[in-house]
Amino acid sequence: MGNRLYVGNLPYSFRDDDMHQAFSAYGSIASAKVMMERDTGRSKGFGFVEMSSDAEAQAAIEGLHGQSVGGRALVVNEARPMEPRPPRTGGFGGERSRY
């Protein structure tokens, strides 16, 4: 098991400090980051926490997965590597409409 956790279904008001506070009850935190929309600065509703050990990460999963925070049930599990996305298609094809 790894010590990097995915945290999903976060309230949109959640920030890095809130994440740090919620997970600190389960051990030392190396980092806590809520992912934010680039344009609006609003939370995307998920983030990542890196605990200092695998045991602490497992304790955080067991303690927080499914817990209600801000009316939302948290999803907490081991983070997986990002999968490659297929190239984007569709949209404007580069040719101007004549109408």
From TrEMBL:
Residues 90-99 have a biased composition (Gly residues). This is RNA recognition motif-containing protein. Keywords: RNA-binding. Residues 77-99 are annotated as: Disordered. It comes from the Bacteria. Residues 3-81 form the RRM domain. GO terms for molecular function: RNA binding. Pfam families: RRM_1. It comes from Pseudorhodoferax soli.
